[in-house]
């Protein structure tokens, strides 16, 4: 991955890691606590996703948690208008702080995605590790105007995605069975 993630990004990624570790020591943002694991799993999978996504102007990260995959994607693709949707207050507060500290213009929607005005649509919607994938995909469908990008394990049942066709399933390098599913809206 080092060959494709620009060197200029590492300073920002380490700054993000630093603030995440500080917040995670006193509030539970992510169950993964080891910095090496955070880099490998959270950063690695998010950056891999960012490298594989089609060109677009807008992206919604559905249930962003501590910012994955949306925030590393934002760092990798500063041209993209990224919205991080996170319904838990403390996680949304962390995301606002990380964005301020990194000097980004990323939007945080600190509520459930279902509460967004119906008119809000995004070219790409990403979903990773959301608790109820079926319900989340159902809520994500009307928000995605072109693509859904779902990080899932190969053992999970393929979600029902009416109006979308699975286009690519890409294994995540270095993981046991994680994969990136990209689905495209049917014409
Ligand atoms: C298990 S965490 C995963 C976070 C992150 N995507 C990751 O991969 O580390 C799922 C997050 O989705 C949030 N969430 C679940 N349903 C949501 C909804 N409908 N709208 C906004 N956030 C939601 C939860 O609050 C939780 O923080």
Automatic annotation (TrEMBL):
Coiled coil: none
Subcellular location field: Cytoplasm
UniProt entry tagged with the keyword Transcription regulation: no
GO cellular component, one term: cytosol
Entry's EC annotation: 2.1.1.-
Main location: cytoplasm
InterPro entries per record: rRNA_ssu_MeTfrase_G (IPR003682), SAM-dependent_MTases_sf (IPR029063)
Pfam families cross-referenced by the UniProt entry: GidB
Annotated residues for binding of S-adenosyl-L-methionine: 63, 68, 113-114, 128
GO molecular function, one term: rRNA (guanine-N7-)-methyltransferase activity
Keyword check for Plastid: no
PANTHER family, alphabetized: S-ADENOSYL-L-METHIONINE-DEPENDENT METHYLTRANSFERASES SUPERFAMILY PROTEIN
Family: Belongs to the methyltransferase superfamily. RNA methyltransferase RsmG family.
Name of the protein: Ribosomal RNA small subunit methyltransferase G
Record organism: Granulicella arctica
Lineage summary: Bacteria, Pseudomonadati, Acidobacteriota, Terriglobia, Terriglobales
